[in-house]
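Chain A, query sequence.
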Amino acid sequence: MSYDAVKPLDGVVMGVNYGFDKLRFLAPVPAGSRVRGRFKLLSAEDKGGGRWLIKQELTVEIEGAEKPALIAEWLGMQVVG
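Chain A, predicted structure.
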């Protein structure tokens, strides 16, 4: 989902999934349901050496449902070369 929604930093040569903070599963996703991911940039922290720690808020919504399936803070390291 994120490849379609979030553009990486210019010149990125590598990305590493650092995992999730504050991951909350709020509702089950019924089989065959359509889902949508919403991404919001929370921070981009320069770690030196061309490394950037990116924190995004991720919300996965279920079509026609009142509550989202999950809300999380997703961490990723991008290395610019």
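The first helix runs from residue 2 to 5. Strands lie at 12-25, 35-48, 51-62, 70-80.
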